[in-house]
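Recap from last week: sequence in, structure out.
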Amino acid sequence: MKKKMKKSYLLLAAFALINLSNAQTKSTGVISLRTGTDLTTIKIDLNQATSTATLTMVGPSSRWFSVGFNTTSMSSNTDVFTSAGTQVIDQVLPGGQIAPNTDSTNNLTVVSNTVSGTSRTVIVTRPFSTGDTKDYTFSYASNSLNIIWAYGQSNVTNPTSEHSTFGTKAVSFTTLGTDDFKSIN
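Predicted structure tokens:
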């Protein structure tokens, strides 16, 4: 009987450990920024165990597209991630309606940058805190984040060119992998 109880406790402990490790990730899920033929989406995943943010953006392959963090306007010192053709650029806004400047240190790690049809999917990772004052510091404790987004005019991959569409959005994070194991005896 003791062996059976011990195995049950070990199994329960294993499930609890798996549950805790999965609960260390928060995600916005896929958020539509623009629909239609120029579908643009973003997904932000925060991994508490590695203190890493993973950003997945999908946008038109023939235009640049950007997202800025923790703001509702093009205010100065806003951290911006831009996809411009094959380039993935870490940028900062100078303020006003002025194109972003390239950060002196690129703190983005490109996981993939692929084109399928007329859409480009870019996946990058970055530490929550880079130590760079120009970069937004992600916090796992946050449950929401304001973002701004924009993309360039048709067939323009130069990120210093005028944008044709832009907007702002408040995104919410949901903790992933929080299964309920209370029913296990």
